């Protein structure tokens, strides 16, 4: 498959996909994009705006994975930081719902949009699995996964998600790792998408 990996980060979702497919990753932060490229040298990496890239290039792909920015939807930010006065309230970033609607009505291939479980009732019904919301146009049977270890030490989180960032400087490693989709959840979803794609060949 030709795969588009939007808001790629360091590739938590990508980690267990293997190298049998043609993958294009889009990440806006040059330092994080550089780390992704080191981890997945066979992928094409674009440093740029994933939201705009989707609009301009969606027809070129068979499978699109999108993980739009999540902080403005987060229960932790709203109920902990905002409630305690550590952060000011902000508008939820509607990029999330724009992309779900856009893909649902315009993209002919398989697609998946991922985000955190929000502090409000989601505007479009997702499935809830592995402490995330998932929207897609293919069936995803639910699986149980262990804790994401977000409150553990950086090295523990890295080991849990299968990344070695010891030699990489200039990054907020905790933030980068916490932003990673759980690789096992992503592999499960990827297999579901691939199975669905095989049916159409």
CATH level 1 class label:
Alpha Beta
Strands of the largest sheet, in order across it?
3-2-1-4-5-7-6
Number-wise, the strands total 7
Q: Could you please say which CATH topology applies here?
A: Rossmann fold
Cα end-to-end separation: 11 Å
Number of domains: 1
Q: Decide which structural class fits the backbone.
A: alpha/beta
Radius of gyration, CA atoms, in whole angstroms: 16 Å
Number of helices: 7
Strand % is 15-25%
Could you tell me the mean pLDDT? 88
* Overall CATH architecture: 3-Layer(aba) Sandwich
Sketch the topology as an H/E string, one letter per element: EEHEHEHHEEEHHH
Largest sheet: 7 strands, mixed
Return residue spans where pLDDT drops below 50 for at least 5 consecutive residues: none
Question: What best-fitting shape do the alpha-carbon axes yield?
Answer: globular
Give me the oligomer status: single chain
Could you characterize what this model shows?
With 201 residues, the chain is α/β, with parallel strands linked by helices. The protein has a single domain (2-200), classed as 3-Layer(aba) Sandwich (Rossmann fold). Helices cover 35% and strands 17% of the residues. The protein has helices spanning 30-39, 50-57, 75-82, 95-106, 154-161, 173-178, 183-200, and strands at residues 2-6, 22-27, 44-47, 63-66, 110-116, 127-129, 132-136. A seven-stranded mixed sheet has the order 3-2-1-4-5-7-6, sandwiched between helices.
């Amino acid at each position: 498959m030709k795969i588009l990996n939007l808001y790629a980060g360091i590739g938590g979702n990508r980690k267990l996909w293997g190298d049998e497919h043609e993958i294009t990753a889009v990440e806006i932060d040059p330092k994080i994009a550089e780390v992704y490229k080191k981890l997945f040298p066979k992928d094409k990496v674009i440093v740029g705006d994933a939201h705009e890239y989707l609009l301009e290039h969606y027809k070129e792909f068979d499978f699109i994975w999108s993980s739009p920015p999540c902080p403005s939807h987060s229960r932790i930010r709203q109920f902990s930081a905002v409630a305690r006065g550590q952060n000011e309230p902000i508008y939820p970033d509607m990029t999330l719902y724009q992309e779900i609607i856009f893909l649902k009505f315009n993209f002919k291939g398989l697609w998946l949009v991922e985000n955190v479980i929000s502090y409000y009732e989601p505007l479009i019904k997702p499935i809830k699995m592995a402490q995330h919301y998932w929207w897609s146009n293919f069936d995803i049977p639910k699986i149980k996964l262990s804790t994401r270890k977000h409150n553990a030490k950086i090295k523990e989180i890295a080991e849990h998600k299968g990344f070695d960032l010891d030699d990489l400087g200039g990054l907020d490693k905790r933030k980068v790792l916490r932003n990673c989709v759980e690789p096992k959840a992503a592999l499960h979803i990827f297999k579901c998408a691939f199975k669905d794609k095989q049916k159409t060949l």
